[in-house]
Amino acid sequence: MVQEGFLTLRKHDCFFQDLVRIKGKDFVTPVSRILIGNPGCTYKYLNTRLFTVPWPTEGYDINYCSPQIQDACKALIRLNDYLHIEAVKALQGQNLFEPKETKDTTVIDREQNFATSLTEKGSVSKDQSSCCVPEDDYISLKNRTSYNLTLLNYMDPLQMLYLKQEPYFGMGSMAVSWHHDENLVERSTVAVYSYSCEGSAVEESNEQKLKGRDPAVWHVGLKVAWDIETPGLAIPLHQGDFYLMLDDLNMTHQHCVLAGFSPRFSSTHRVADCSRGTLEYIFGRCELALQNLQTDSDSKALSLKSLETAVVKQVEEIHNEVEFEWLRQFWFQGKRYLKCTDWWLKPMAKLEEFWRKMEIMTSLVLSEVGKEEQIEEQRNETISCFLLVLTERQRLRKEWTARLSMGDHHSLFIWCLGQYQDCEQCPLIQAACAKFTSAAAAEYNSAFCTSLGIHGSCGETLQRMIQR
């Protein structure tokens, strides 16, 4: 069932390599991935935000591109429930909790049915098919084991031109380098289900073993964090195996994935920290920002309720967050999600409408601070604070423009192209003009334009506007 789901998603080209950023440089991951989980959740790793393909969830209307993809998502949420039960049992055993029944019977039935199907395939023993959660510790266990998404991975090592070698213990080729899983609830359990495709590679290697490891078999490596003196472990992963990283293991240790010869899928179930990574969160932030925008009942003209520095700064920071943590991240990944569902298109269109209103708010700030009746001290304070945020916005826009050269990101290019019809509409240029019209104008020169990345025709436009 889960195995069929993997193959279905692969058949429909739903796995994609990610462009991630490490120490200021962009890299394409050797592993292809897809994120599946609760509707509206995201998961960010290595400066790349992934958006969940929502699995079937009560109360949500999810239009899948095919019944097969829907079945694959159903299988994964059942696997998710089962691994939740196994994680709770493992934590109970570790802490010697007294069992007491508290789980919802519907969830238990779904988990037990799935456990039965796995037992029939020989993946787990029959005594693992039920679970009881201690009442007193239920909240803690739930917070640490209620997986809200799974990051699916796929790689065929024989199709890779190059794989990095494990550098410290001679463990061989790595599919994923040493790392901690990031953006997780503290001390939460990570559950990983592994499936290596049969009949596609040599079962056993006749080559010389690397430090006792059979290079034909996939392994997970484990070592003490930031320690290359203490020997690491390489644990073999056979078809249908799953493992759990309990409690603080992900914080105190690092792990890697050592490639075998056969193609491999894995489903890595996580309790992602979604405090800043859900639609509910970002919509709430937008509503907070737009509270400072008002419409005249007669003229319908837009204006700002407050020009207090703290209010302006908060709105512009939210503006940046919406653009760089959500809109650009989504369109940077293009149409990949449409391979599975169109679920994200409506909320992203709503988010873009919020963003456009915040662009108007930026222009309104600039208009207000340019008025002569503004108190000079207050105006300079607002401008100074305002420009810090706008300078960061320009830096990030240049950074994202550079990332466009790293592959086919046509969707982001089209999104960016449509934002300004000409240079004079750009809030950044207007901000620079506002700065030059202040009493301290004489202290600034063309270096200011350079610091903001304003060159060429945009720089000429700025000069014309300053001279007016």
Walk me through this protein's architecture:
This protein is of the alpha+beta class and 468 residues long. The protein has helices spanning 2-11, 67-95, 105-120, 138-145, 249-252, 279-290, 309-332, 345-369, 376-403, 410-417, 427-436, 446-451, 456-467, and strands spanning 16-22, 25-37, 42-45, 48-51, 53-54, 149-155, 174-179, 190-196, 219-224, 233-236, 242-245, 253-258, 264-270, 293-295, 302-304. It is built from 13 helices and 15 strands. Strands 1, 2, 5, 6, 8, 11 and 13 form a seven-stranded mixed sheet that branches. Strands 7-12-9-10 form a four-stranded antiparallel sheet. The longest helix is centred in the first third of the chain and has 29 residues, at 67-95. It is elongated. The N and C termini lie far apart (70 Å). The model is unreliable at 96-103, 115-131, 200-211 and 420-468 (pLDDT under 50).
